[in-house]
Each structure stands twice: as C-alpha cells, then as structure tokens.
C-alpha cells in the first residue's frame, strides 16, 4: 500500500510489489513477483511468455521513483515522474512467469528535481537487465 501512496501507478501498470533495503536518498531494492497472470503475457508471447524488456526498465523507474518520494516525504506523494533519458540498456536473459525480479537502483546524482539512477534487475543474484536512466519529478 505504501508504494501506491508514493507513486500514481496502478494495475495493470504497477510493476513492483515490495520495496526492501531502502537507504533514503541513496539506494533501494524493488521486488516484482512475475506471474503468468500478467496481462502482457497474453501477447508476449503466448507459447513462450517473456516479460518485455521495456517493462523491466519501467519497474526500475518505479523502484527509483518510490525511493525518491520516500526520501523527499509526503509532499511528493503521487507526483508524476517522467523519463528524461535511458542509457546503456542491456538485456541478458528472458524473464518468465515464476521469476522474482529484484530491482536494485542506486542514485548517481540529483540536481533540483532531476534524478539519475543506475538500475540492475536480478533473478537469483544473476543480472537479467541493466540501465542508467534519469527522470524529472513534475509539480
């Protein structure tokens, strides 16, 4: 429930289930339990369901946005956060139903309302995707 207070995303686009290891202003780990019931699996791909890479990057962004709001406090709850850049995205192996993504984000820098993060999504401590991205919090 705290994630939904922090960011405006809702089903079917809320892509993190839990936040752990939160170090305010620095880093956090988001957890996504990937279920066969995810709506994107109906078309991506019915015979071999694979979580789209762009949604893994979105889960990184949601983890980072939740960290930002937890850091900045209640005045920032529910604010929109827009991608500004996505750099060096790499996808190392498919993510399938039954996997648990642990999405590690670390703040690289922050200037005014622009934050830059490095994200790595892992399954069982094996990197499946990574990217550097920046986003802007809108009033």
From TrEMBL:
Pfam families: FabA (PF07977)
Active site residues of this protein: 44
Parts of the chain that traverse the membrane: none
Coarse class of the protein's main subcellular location: cytoplasm
InterPro entries tied to this protein: FabA_FabZ, FabZ, HotDog_dom_sf
Presence of keyword Lipid biosynthesis: yes
Top-level taxon in the UniProt lineage: Bacteria
SUPFAM superfamilies found in the cross-reference section: Thioesterase/thiol ester dehydrase-isomerase
Localization, UniProt: Cytoplasm
UniProt catalytic activity: a (3R)-hydroxyacyl-[ACP] = a (2E)-enoyl-[ACP] + H2O
Enzyme class, first EC level, given as a word: lyase
GO molecular function, one term: (3R)-hydroxyacyl-[acyl-carrier-protein] dehydratase activity
Keywords carried by this UniProt record: Cytoplasm, Lipid A biosynthesis, Lipid biosynthesis, Lipid metabolism, Lyase
EC number: 4.2.1.59
HAMAP family: FabZ
Function, in words: Involved in unsaturated fatty acids biosynthesis. Catalyzes the dehydration of short chain beta-hydroxyacyl-ACPs and long chain saturated and unsaturated beta-hydroxyacyl-ACPs.
Family indicated by similarity: Belongs to the thioester dehydratase family. FabZ subfamily.
Protein name: 3-hydroxyacyl-[acyl-carrier-protein] dehydratase FabZ
Source species: Acetobacter fallax
Gene responsible for this protein: fabZ
């Amino acid at each position: 429930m705290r994630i939904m207070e922090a960011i405006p995303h809702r089903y079917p686009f809320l892509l993190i289930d839990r936040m752990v290891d939160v170090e305010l202003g620095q880093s956090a780990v988001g957890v996504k339990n990937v279920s066969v019931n995810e709506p994107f699996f109906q078309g991506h791909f019915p015979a071999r369901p694979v979580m789209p890479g762009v949604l893994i990057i979105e889960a990184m962004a949601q983890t980072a946005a939740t960290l930002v709001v937890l850091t900045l406090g209640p005045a920032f709850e529910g604010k929109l956060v827009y991608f500004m850049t996505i750099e060096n995205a790499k996808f190392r192996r498919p993510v399938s139903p039954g996997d648990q993504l642990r999405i590690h984000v670390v703040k690289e820098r922050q200037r005014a309302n622009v934050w830059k993060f490095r994200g790595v999504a892992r399954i069982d401590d094996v990197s499946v995707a990574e990217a550097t991205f920046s986003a802007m919090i809108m009033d």
